[in-house]
Amino acid sequence: MFDECCLSINAENKLQQEDKYWRYISLVKAALAGNWEIAERFLDQNKTALRVPITKSLETALHIAVGTGKARNGKAQNFVKKLVESMPLEALELCDDKGYTALHTAAWVGNTAAAMVLVQTHPALLHIRANYNRLPIHVAAMYGRKDSKDTLSYLLRVTKDDPPKNDPQVSKRYPAYKNQSGIWLLTYIITSEFFDVALDLIHRYPKLATTRIQLKKPADTKVRAGPTSALANLAMKVSAFPSGSRLNFWQWIIYSCIPVKVESCSKYHSRGDIEDPMNTSQILTNQKYNWARVLWANFCFFAHKVNQKLHFIHWKVFEFAGVSVKVESCSKDQSRGDIEDQISCSKSHSRGDIEDQMNTSPKLINEKYNWVRFLWANFCISAHKARQKLPFILRKVFEFAVPRMIKRIPEEKQKHYQALQLAKCLCKEIQSLNNSNYYESLAKGPLFTAAKLGVHEVVEEIVDSFPSLVWARDSDNYSIFHHAIVLRHENVFNLLYQMSEHKRVITVSIDKSNNTTLHWAGRLAPRNKLNLVPGAALQMQRELQWFEEVKKFVIPYYMHWQNNDEKTAEMVFTDAHKALVVEGEKWMKDTATSCTIAAALIATIAFAAAISVPGGNDDANGLPILSNETVFFVFAISNAFSLFTSTTSLVMFLSILTSTYAEKDFLFALPKRLIIGLVTLFFSITAMMIAFGSIVYLLFGYNKRWVLIPTVVFAGIPIISFVCLEFPLLLNLITSYGGGIFGKKSNRLFY
C-alpha cells in the first residue's frame, strides 16, 4: 500500500512538472521563430518567464533563441537583442542541464551575432564554467566546424587571460589560457583542425606546447583516455598531413600545382604573400609530380603574357575605331576641354573611360567612314565588357563543372601546410626546455603514435628535433620501424632510405617470442591496409614486396632464425598467407577468363575482316577494289594490328590460367602477364574501332565528310569506357610492380 502511494505521488509530481513546462509552449515557439511580438505579449503576462527554465533540459528562452543558430535574416538576431535587453544580468548566467549558459550555446552552434550581444552586455559570461570546467571558448573549439570558425575567432579575441577584476563574482570565474584550461583549449582547437588558430595561440602562450594534460580531472571519477599533450594530439590527426590524403592520380597532379597561402602570426611561421608555385614546400609536393608543377608554372607565365597582349590589342582596336582620346593627368576636381561634361576624370586615369569616349565631340572622330567606325567602336566596347566579365563567368562554370573534391584540394593543401608548421612549432618549444627528461616524456609518446598511424611527417619532425629518439623502444622492445613493418606503413618505413648506415643496426631486434624483424614482416597485414589494394592477387603481391624489402635490411645471421615455435620467417609467411594465396588464385583466374573471352572475340572479328575485305576483290587480279584508297590502307594496318595485339593478349591470359600459382609467382610473373594482357587488349580494342571507322567512311563517306564526325564519336565510346573502367586497375598494377611503394622519397637526412 505504501509503495502504491509513493508511485502515485511520483506520478503526480511528474505531471505537475510537465504541466509547468507546457505553460511556456508559446514562448518556446516564439523563440524558435524569432517572433518578438508574440514573445513580448507572453512576457507581459508572465514576468518571471525570463528568469526560469522553460523546457525539461532547463533551457531558458534565451538558450532557445540563441540555439537557432546563425540568423538568415535580422529577425532572430533582433529577438536575441530584445530578449537580452529585457533580462537582468544574473538571468544571463542561468545554465541548462549541461551547465551551459546562453553564451555556451552560442559558441556551440556558431552563432557569432548572439555571442557578440551577450559579451557586450555581460563580459563576465566569458569566464563562467560549465561541466568539465568548460568555458564558452572551450565549447566553441570543441564543437568547431568550418562554418563556425568565426565564432571561435571572436571569442579568442574578446576572452582575456583573467576574469574582470570589477566582477563581484570574480572568485567563481575561471581563467581561460592558464594551466589545464589552456592546454584543453589548445587540444580542442587541434582536434577541430583549426591549425592556424592553434599556431597563433602557441605564439601568445608558448608554455601550452610543453604542458601535459591531466587525464584524471577533479570532476571525473575515471581516468580519461586520450592524448597527453598538444603534440600527441596532433600526431593522431592522420588526415591533417599529406600522408593521410587519399587522392587519386589526377588529384595529386592538381595538388602538386597549387601554391600555398602563407598566413600566420606565429614566430615560427612568418606572414607573407602567396608563394610562387615553383617554390612550394617540398614536403607538401609529391616528388613524383614535380613535372606537373613545372608545366603549371609555365602555363601561368604564358597566360599572363597572353593577357598583356590582349590588353594591348584592345587599345589598338579602339584607336583604329577612332575612339581613343589622349587623356592627360588631372586632379580629382579638375575638368578638361570639350569632353569634361562627358567624361569624369579620376586621379589614376591614363586613357579615360571607353564608354564615355563614345560621347566625345564629333571633331575628334575622322569624318570619313563615321558610321563604320561608330558600329565598330560599339562592338569593341561590348567585347571589352565581355572580357571584364570573363573571370566571373569562368569561375561560375568552374564551380558548376568541377567536382566538389577538386574544389577542396586547395583547402586540404593549406591545412597540410598549417599542420606541418604547427608540428615544427611544438617541437621547437619542447626543444627550448633543454632537458632530456622532458624530451622523453613529451616527444616519445607522440613519436610512437605517429609511427603507428603512419604519419611520417610528424616522425621526421620529432626525430629532426630530438635525434636520440630514433633509438627509442616501447615496452615490447619495438622501435618505430618495427611498428611500421607490422602495421604496413610504407611512408614511415621509407625513412630508412634517408638514414645513414645506422639503418643496419636499428632493424636488428629480437622480441620476447624470439621473433626477428623478418618474422614480423611475415605476418599478415591488417585488414584495413590490405583493403587499400584492389584484388586478392595484388594484395598478395604487396605482402611479398614487404617481405622481400625487409629482407634487405636483415643480416644473414638472422635469415634462417627460428622463433620459439621453431619457425623461420618464411614458414611464418607461408602459414599466415595460405588463405590469401587461394583468394589471389581465384581472382586472377576470374579476371583472366573474362578478358580471354573479349580477346578471342576481337581476334575472330579481325580475322574475319581481313578475309572479307570491304568493297570486294577485283576478278581480274584478285586484289581489293578499294586498295588504292588511303582510308583502305588505314583499315588494313589497324585491322592487322588489332589481330596481332588481341592474339598476344589471348596468349597472356591463357598463360595466367595455366600458371602453378606458387607464392613467388604473385610477385613478378602473374602481375607482368596481367599488365601485358590488359595493355594489348586495350590496343586491340582501339585498333578494331579505327578499322571499323575506316570501313564506314570508305563505304558511306564518299563526298560526305560529315560521316566521319559521328563515326569518331561513337567509336570512342568503347575506348573511353575501357579506360575509365580498367585504367585504375592497370595503374595499380604498373605502380606496384617491381620496387613499387618502397624507396627514398626525399633528400632530407633522417638520421
From TrEMBL:
Q: Does the keyword DNA-binding apply?
A: no
Domain (PGG) ranges: 585-697
Name the Pfam families for this protein.
Ank_2, PGG
Which InterPro entries does the record associate with it?
A: Ankyrin_rpt (IPR002110), Ankyrin_rpt-contain_sf (IPR036770), PGG_dom (IPR026961)
Transmembrane spans: 595-613, 633-662, 674-700, 706-734
| Any Gene Ontology CC annotation | membrane
> Is the Membrane keyword given for this protein?
yes
State the superkingdom. Eukaryota
Q: Which UniProt keywords apply?
A: Membrane, Transmembrane, Transmembrane helix
Spell out the PANTHER family in the cross-references: ANKYRIN REPEAT-CONTAINING PROTEIN NPR4-LIKE, CASKIN
Protein name as catalogued: Ankyrin repeat family protein
